[in-house]
TrEMBL record:
It comes from Desulfosporosinus acidiphilus (strain DSM 22704 / JCM 16185 / SJ4). This is Lipoprotein.
Amino acid sequence: MVKLFKLFKLLLMVFLLLLLGGCTKMSWTTAGKIVPPISNICPLEGKWIVLQDLSAGGQSGRKEENWVGNTAQFTRDVAILGDYVWNSPSYKIKKVNATNYLMTKYLMLPSSLVPDNKIVEVTTVSTSESFLGEFIRINDSKLIALVQNKVLLLQKVSDQADNSLIVMNPNGPNLKQSSKSAISGVLLGLKIPEGNDETYQTLWLAASAKKLHPVLMGPNIFFPRSSGFWVLQAQKVITGALKDDELSAHDISTKILENQSKTMKTNKSVVSEKNQQRIIDYVGNDYVTIENKIDGVDQLQVLPVDKISAQEGVKISDLLENGGSNVYNNARAQVLQALKNEGILPKDNDRSGENFGLARKNGHWYLQGRVNYQYEGSPRYIDYNVNLIPPAKMISYDTLCLSWQNIKDRIPDATDAFTSPNRDIALITTKTELYVYGITNDRLDREPLTDLKLKEGEAVIMSEWATGSYVDNWEKAFLAYGAQRFN
């Protein structure tokens, strides 16, 4: 009887458990399923208007596009900026330190807009084939957009995009199809060693949907400015036993003016009793950095393109703001003190702040200063880093969208790298090769689009990018200048 009672209790407990279990969803029925997010709202959802263009300067060599007053609209299905449309965009959010993030973008924005060291939310917008840009959220009503090689301030005007956006025809006549595959091109300036001298040439590399255009090559440095395309030339002038490098720059639509030639001759006569060698290290839209060698003394100089033949360089104080000169002077003072500690008493010949330039390292340009001194009767120098972002007056675009470590893991002997604003192609250099790769999901594609041979010691001194319809314009301008297909 006791056994029957215990058995009855056991069966009753099992029955109750089964009855209660039927009121709940068994845990194994959801195993392996992806639980959808609570909210399916686009992180940039709504309608925005461009209040201000914060760019220091736009893409050169073309008429600038005015973005102020244009609208931007975002949903899960479409992203629109002005007349451009991206279908099926992907949104990725990250939180970053504002100061560190802006430094990687070589941007200086007012602290009233983006406070120093503030943690901000950055949303990256892209499609499977192209990259739209990155959006820094200042607050719920303001964004800073890094798009189309521009820095734009956006103000929210509505929490929702226009209803017509849902049913709009993306192939309509008023929309530029940025949802199509990206197209990018770059004018690449090269410095080529020739014995004890250097020669210069320009390459044109472009790709549409990761299909490479014919590679073009032209003599000298062909580069864009806001006034059009210019050419920078270096000519060796020999007068008796003296040698001099003469630099000139002019708009390709005009010839070198007579008064410019006279000015160059006048400047040359100033140093006619000395050997002078000018080696170009960097070419930008408005400034050039050179190594100026006069009778064995090597100094750095920054020269304005409009006064390229000048003997005096630009002062660091003319380019840096907000105490930048103090950072430069402090860095220089540390080097001078280190030399004095070693018993070397260098003559401080840079009180005006002209002995500086740009150096290339790990895919970026860096400010670099130089101290000249004598050691055992011979001229020597030491270079030092200046821990400041190069001013936008000198560099308009210097973003590397790939990790330098990932590049080195893939190409261990890589010496430099450049990536397009569209994030669709990358240029990787080694000591003897120049590779062009497609980029997919911020990684190099498996095989390069092309591989060009470089001379030992050949270096990139300029990279000017064009995107969209400007690629065709730049290519035609370079061909009109006389560029030939690269063999």
